[in-house]
Amino acid sequence: MKTIQGFMLIEVDVAALNNAGSDPSSKLDNGVVTKKIRKNNREYPYVSGQAWRYWWRETLVHQFKWVMSPVIREKKIAFTEAEPMKYPDDDIFGYMRAGTKEVEDLKTKKVKKENITLTRVSPLKNSALIGVAYNPIVQNWASMTRQDGDAVPFGIDEYCAVMKGMFSLNLDMVGRFSEQNRTGYVNINEEMRKKYLEEGAILVDDPIAKDKKGNPIKLVELPKVLRLKRIQETLSALKTLSGGAKQTTNLADVTPKLIVLAEFKTGNHPFSHLAKEEKGIPVFSVNALIEVIEDYQEQFSGKVFIGKRKGFMDDLDDQLQELSEAGRIEFGPVNKIIDSFIETISLD
User: Which end of the chain lies in a sparser environment, N or C, as judged by fewer CB atoms within 10 Å?
Assistant: First the structure.
């Protein structure tokens, strides 16, 4: 298995990136609470993984002109078109399109329902973004005053935070589609398989799954240039990532201020504990990074790439530069490091 494992820190001031609706505990009639979670008996703000994925999709639309798969709604369910060759988001972000069709049983001549559900495990997986260090979430008073009469007060949760998140992109899955009859792996049907092969796709062996006879199951693989393009654009989108609630009055930059990228030979994520809280301050642990590099040195394909913005945790510069000069990491500005890492990606 070949994966890209990523870790990043963002920093926001007076933000409300992901709200959770009305606040019944507020003394104001219209109180809005942000998403928060308890850890170590304290409340930390967080952005749901779903919200982060939404920002990621929207950035791909605006920066790379991705045409997103249409969303179809039926009663209380919704699903995309499930066409991963045509729509790159179906390929990268996965899908589940449930459905049945009526067919006639050739023996009994009775009409029965046949399952035609298509599902795809997302090659791109991500965590939530959560505050690294405790910093109280404050509900501030605001008001609508442009109308005649009294002001209409409302409350909004706001916070300052350094937030951490991690993601993983399975290179072996991007642009490869299975017909294996198990949840998450019925990516395409026979009709789609035939169509994709006619339009330039090829058949390749699944690196893991085998049939009852022990032979590799065949996957439908898109042209390598298209697969690589989707991978590169998915990662490049982080350079201009934007989104979050209350952007009109609480504008926040959600691009990475520090990012760690590496190509890995397994699916586990080694970077989850690189950031921690020390005496109420969020810190990035270079010692933890060194330990990860040493513990997993056989699993890395190439170097670990680390990008950092000037003005953010500048006390790390000397240590990271020293590791770079020793040949243990690649270190530089965030956007340059993302570009440099992308150039190393190979699907051979």
Answer: C
Pull the structure tokens for residue 289.
Answer: 């990074």
Same domain membership, residue 36 and residue 139:
yes
Where in the sequence is the domain holding 79, given as residue range(s)? 3-175+222-344
Mapped onto helix, strand or coil, the DSSP state of residue 201 is coil
Among residues of the chain, what percentage have pLDDT more than 70?
91
Q: Is residue 284 within 8 Å of 326, Cβ to Cβ?
A: no
Number of residues assigned to the chain: 348
Q: Decide if 3 contacts 170 (C-beta within 8 A).
A: yes
Helix residue ranges per DSSP H, 134-220: 190-198
- Are residue 214 and residue 291 in the same domain, yes or no? no
Looking up tokens 């690196």 gives 207
| Separation CA 140–CA 154 (nearest Å) | 8
Domain boundary among the residues 163, 187, 221 is at: 221
Dihedrals phi, psi of 227, to nearest 5 degrees? -60, -45
Q: Locate 232 and state its tokens.
A: 């590169």
**Cα gap 18→264, rounded to integer Å:** 31
3-state secondary structure of 226: helix
Residue pLDDT, tens place only, 41-82: 999 999 999 999 999 999 999 999 999 999 988 777 888 999
Picking from 221, 245, 277, the residue at the C-terminal end of a domain is 221
CA–CA distance, 57 with 256 (Å, rounded to integer):
16
Q: At a CB cut-off of 8 Å and minimum separation 6, what does 210 contact?
A: 216, 217
Confidence tier at 23 by pLDDT (50, 70, 90): low
What total number of domains does the chain contain? 2
Average confidence score pLDDT of the chain: 91
Give which of 47, 11, 44, 8 is closest to 274, Cα–Cα.
8
Query: What's the pLDDT band for 105 if we cut at 50, 70, 90?
Result: low
